[in-house]
Sequence to fold (198 residues):
Amino acid sequence: MPPRPHPARDLREACVDQALAIIGDVGLEALSIREVARRLGVSHQAPYKHFPSSDHLLAEVVRRTYRQFSEHLEARPRSSHPGEDLKSMGEAYLRFAIDHPLHYRLLFGTPLPDPAAHPEMMAEARRAFQLLHEAIGHLKPPTSETDRQLDALFVWATVHGLATILQTAALDQIGLDKVVLAEALPHALHRIGKALAP
Fold:
């Protein structure tokens, strides 16, 4: 059993860490304040001082994960060429999905708490989308806001779909050549660049 956290901040941080561990170990459905307390060896009431419900705890885990995701995208190698910069973002996106599969599934593959009830969580989610939105704005001449958002969704859907497929066993089952798999992301990013070219 992990050591009992004492200071309030330590307990808050321990709850967040343990919530992510529970999701990774046995799935989102098993997350509860009581289970977090049990794993931490504290009274089942103690976590409620920081999180009124398991949804609030999950929202904090998701908020931090979105922030981690955004920081990962922001830390990508930058280029003054808009097409190369968008390509670098796509590569960073896929790298996050590969290096942090639990976090990636949490953001894009699990039911999340009510966005209206957790604005801080959604602020971090919008920050990640805004990075893509800005990169597309540098790639193309000014267009309507609707067109720019549609382009952002097109890029996101393409890279997300590829990242998701690469994490499944489906590719092994259809027997794609390793060369094809190695070229999948560069090919997709090249096609995106062609599609969005002025």
The CA atoms of residues 56 and 118 lie 8 Å apart. The radius of gyration is 20 Å. Residues 65-196 form a domain with the Tetracycline Repressor; domain 2 fold (CATH 1.10.357.10).
